[in-house]
Specification:
five-stranded parallel sheet, about 30% helix, 9 helices, Rossmann fold
């Protein structure tokens, strides 16, 4: 039986598309969480309901700080797939415990799918080809098993990669890429319409600030405060913590891409989008009416 390993809202949307395209009727969902079961705001977990309801069963996995614990979890997951003659679908390819456990199942089919900008930025961990930096026996083992790193190993093991970025280079060659027929407009949630401004030509997209250094966080937030009055809306990132009390700050059910396309087409003018190295700038790269300005370049 096929297994889908999911962590984020974008991943869940892509998984739903893969299930429909490949006509997969029976599958197991493995939801991974780093810090707690509700890393994202609870609003965003409504997008998981459809794939959860149709799953044969669902497993919630909390990632441990111990490699051995995560190894056992992924080993058992892959053993279950192997016994049932299934396939594995995952997005996060730099997981050392998953790669290590996969060494015990060399015939298992691995398929990957997009995890956002990490799939496109050549300097990201997904393109790393160096051994994991560890001391002692663990470091020696990692260098022996994965001399070019776990991400390189899983890229090579990938049979097919499903993408929503059809015109951009990804983690594998184009002959292994499956382009998904993707329309962000279809993902607009009508519950969000009342929160959108009647007219605006500038939007600000938030970020998960905890992913940046303290120094970067301070600078980014200062830059945001400089332009907050000049934008029509501040759309929070799913994992963004509440830090700014302002009438323009909103949490939406819809993906940002769907909202931006709706606002731009409704206003019928150029839309400026301030962001912090967001995946959205790649998703809507071909839209000539939306101009992205990366605030991270100023930090």
């Amino acid at each position: 039986m096929d297994v889908f390993i999911v962590r984020t809202r974008l991943q869940s949307l892509i998984v739903e598309k893969i299930i429909n395209v490949e006509n997969i009727s029976k599958y197991i969902l493995v939801f991974c969480y780093l810090d707690n079961k509700y890393e994202d705001d609870s609003k965003y977990y409504t997008t998981y309901k459809r794939i959860r309801e149709n799953a044969f069963f669902t497993i919630n996995v909390f990632c441990s700080s111990k490699v051995s614990v995560n190894f056992i979890k992924f080993f058992l997951t892959q053993l279950m797939v192997f016994i049932t003659n299934g396939k594995v679908f995952l997005a996060v390819i730099d997981s050392y415990p998953f790669a290590l456990s996969n060494r015990f199942f060399p015939s298992l089919e691995i398929n990957t799918f997009d995890d956002g900008s990490y799939n496109l930025i050549k300097s990201s961990a997904y393109f790393n080809e160096t051994a994991l930096a560890r001391k002692g026996v663990k470091g020696l083992v990692s260098k022996m098993v994965f001399p070019k790193g776990g991400a390189k190993y899983l890229r090579d093991r990938t049979k097919r990669h499903y993408t929503v970025f059809p015109d951009l280079d990804n983690i594998v060659e184009k002959d292994r890429v499956v382009n998904l027929d993707w329309d962000w407009s279809e993902l607009l949630d009508n519950r969000d319409l009342d929160k959108l401004p009647a007219r605006t030509d500038a939007i600000l997209l938030g970020t998960a600030f905890q992913d940046f250094s303290i120094k970067q966080q301070v600078k980014l937030k200062k830059n945001i405060m400089k332009i907050i009055d000049d934008v029509g809306l501040y759309i929070m990132h799913p994992r963004e913590e509440n830090w700014l009390e302002h009438s323009k700050v909103v949490k939406l059910h819809s993906p940002a891409e769907a909202v931006l396309k709706y606002i731009q087409s409704t206003n019928n003018n150029e839309l400026i989008v301030y962001h912090i190295d967001t995946t959205v700038s790649y998703s809507l790269k071909r839209n000539e009416h939306i101009r992205f300005i990366n605030l991270l370049s100023e930090v």
